[in-house]
Amino acid sequence: MSTVSQPANRPEQPPPATATGPGTGAAPGHDPAGDRHRLTALQGLAALSLDAMASVAYGPESIVLVLATAGAYGLGFTLPVTLAIAALLAVLVASYRQVIAAFPNGGGSYAVARTHLGPRSALVAAASLVLDYVLNVAVSVTAGVAALTSAFPALYGDRVWICLAVLLVVTAINLRGIADSARAFLLPTAVFVGSILAMIAVGLFRDAPASTVTAAGHASALAHNATSVGALLLLRAFASGCSALTGVEAVANAVPSFRAPAARRAQRTEVALGALLGVMLVGLSLLIGRFHLQPVDGVTVLAQLADASLGHNWAFYVVQFATMVLLALAANTSFGGLPVLMGLLAHDNYLPHVFGLKADRQVHRHGVLALAAVAAALLVFSGGDVNTLVPLFAIGVFVGFTLCQAGMVRHRHRERSAGWFGKALLNGFGALLTAASALVVTATKFTDGAWLIVVALPLMVLAFEVVHRTYGRIGDRLGLGRVPEPPRRARSLVVVPVSHLSRLTSEAVNAAVSLGDEVIAVTVTHDTPEDRPAAEALRRDWELWNPGVDLLELPSLTRSLGRPITSYVRDLAARRPDARVTVLIPEVEPAHLWQRVLQNQRGAVLAHAVRRDTDAVICRLRFRLAP
Does the N terminus or the C terminus of the chain have fewer Cβ atoms within 10 A? Predict the structure, then answer.
């Protein structure tokens, strides 16, 4: 079956990704007017780095909580573990900077794995990124709302509704375009980064904590019977602290969202993100050692550091409020990166093509809405409790990191440019570290819910492959990629369903005789006392009008409208195999939107029946009523 506007069963292909030159990201035929809906390097920090920036609120705390099991001696390893994470961060930033140059169309780990490791590895990378992005939205929103309900306990019972409200706001802003979301979140990002850097700078000049009010009265989480630190404990602390690295890949995934030269701007954003994140992580770690901080129940490490550095005053509350806001808004990283990744998957036929379509503000609206819907379901499922979601978080991104680093090793080996061996060695070392982190995190958090990720990853890969095979079968049936036979003209038969005589009927017949070589008007009749007068009136009026088109009555024993007409169309097509049958369905287009509720939807019902049961072309004629 096909319609006038869109042949049936033809996959709706999104615009193909435009090839760009490495290092520039500027596509031929670039439209400068569209740049106002794209990102500058500074806006990229606000739109795509909130996840990574906000991770300083829980990354150092994750390290401290693991090392605290070895007592005060264990906490002494906080700085070395953080420095190791900072070193890995530097490796990842350098690697993703090269990924941006080599793959300026975005996609990050997926694009690298697709080119150098094969389609199956690429799908694993894509599935891991999708899971990480979705979980990031849920974790970020619940963490931000948890900070709010900690300050205002009366709101705790409404936390799910507050989470959904925050998600709605972030989604609405992103539907206006990623540039608008960046402008909206630029100030909160600046306040957060400025307050953390100020806290570090002030704290490094203090010899003793300015205040310990926040920790007073809270039970210590420090173990007192441990005196040794083993390699496994350090590895666990390293893996837990690597949660601070989530979001580093987002810039590489969303390169097309930047203004031209896109790749160069994205690289600057990636370097700035790495530098800021590294300085904040190492600075906070130095403060932990300087103030001999111990983790306590019910108070975050960041809150204790703010109290110790700035004192329990207005500056302390600025840090807490900025942290709360940025945690809630960190979901924006996913809205910037995932829709672009879904667009690439759609272009490669692994997701429905609708995810590859862009609105006029350069936003993949279907991807944004799909992400919001799944995240909302997770928020409801978790009851707005961040502890339910955290065990699932960060595993996916480690898988993506590992595949990306391994793919870049292959890239270096194939490219063999100057200094390729050293770069490949660096990428290989990074792949080993992230692979070890992925294994440790999965093993230590398996019973806490990480098993869901282990199950979900292969299921998502399977779903991608099912979609791909389906598109492959459709493409074979349509002969995509093959030159079709020359067009040939067939005799055109136009069937016009009518129920009464009016200007709508007249317009439909006029259109039909313009389109077809032969026109047949049909009407469904019911042999009941209440229906006979209408049928006789239509027969009489048709004879008086005499349009030169026969009116064929289709008797029906039921009240069905579509079944008699589709049955006639199938019989007509069987009797006239050399003709092209078109069903022209006249419909009224009301002057006002609210008037659509007054329509009986007869045209839509009939079009659905013809599309479902016949191969006829459908033409829906709109008769517009003047206001």
Answer: C
Cα separation, 95 vs 504, in Å, equals 65
CA gap 316, 343 in Å, rounded: 42
Q: For helices 301-310 and 262-290, what crossing angle results, to 10°?
A: 70
Give the pLDDT confidence of 240-275 residue by residue, as tens digits: 777 778 778 778 877 887 888 888 888 888 898 889
Given a cut of 80, whether residue 5 has pLDDT beyond it is no
The Cα-based distances of 581 to 439, 466, 518, 554, 569 in angstroms read 61, 34, 10, 17, 8
Measured between alpha carbons, how far is 127 from 441 in angstroms, rounded to an integer?
18
User: Rounded to an integer, what distance in angstroms lies between the CA atom of residue 157 and that of residue 135?
Assistant: 22
CB 74 within 8 A of CB 226: yes
**DSSP codes of every residue in 286-312:** HHHHHTT---BTTB-HHHHHHHHHH-S
**CA dist., res. 184 & res. 512, Å (int):** 53
CA angle 512, 2, 548 (to 5 degrees): 15
> How many angstroms separate the CA atoms of 158 and 29, rounded?
51
* Half-sphere exposure at residue 46, Cβ-oriented, CA atoms within 13 angstroms: 21
Q: Is the pLDDT of residue 15 over 80?
A: no
* Residue 31: how many other CB atoms lie within 10 Å: 8
**Which residues, including other chains, have CB under 8 Å from residue 533's CB and lie 6 or more apart?**
none
Return the SS3 of 223: coil
Tens-digit pLDDT profile for residues 463-504 = 999 999 999 898 888 887 788 788 888 888 999 999 888 888
CB 267 within 8 A of CB 103: no
Name 494's bridge partners: 519, 582
Helix, strand or coil, per DSSP, at residue 548: coil
**Structural contact between residues 182 and 44, judged by C-beta atoms closer than 8 angstroms:** yes
Asked if the model's pLDDT at residue 599 lies above 80, the reply is no
Cβ-in-10-Å burial (0-12, 13-18, 19+) of 569 comes to buried
Summarised one tens digit per residue, pLDDT across range 207-227 is 887 787 776 766 666 666 655
* Dihedral (CA of 236, 239, 241, 243) sign: negative
Nearest of 202, 200, 254, 355 to residue 51 by alpha carbon: 254
Burial tier of 12 (Cβ tally within 10 Å: 0-12, 13-18, 19+) = exposed
The answer to whether residues 433 and 88 touch, using CB atoms and an 8 Å cutoff, is yes
Q: Which among 327, 279, 319 is positioned nearest to 138, based on CA atoms?
A: 327
B/e letters for 529-562, b = 16+ CB within 10 Å, e = fewer, are eeeeeebeebeeebeeeebebebeeeebeeeebb
Residue length, the chain? 627
Q: Are 382 and 142 in contact (CB under 8 A)?
A: yes
- For the chain, the first-to-last Cα distance in angstroms comes to 35
Nearest residue to 138 (alpha-carbon basis) of 323, 327, 391, 375: 375
pLDDT in tens, 417-474: 777 788 788 788 888 888 887 887 777 777 767 778 888 889 999 999 999 999 989 8
Which two three-digit tokens encode residue 457? 């990853």
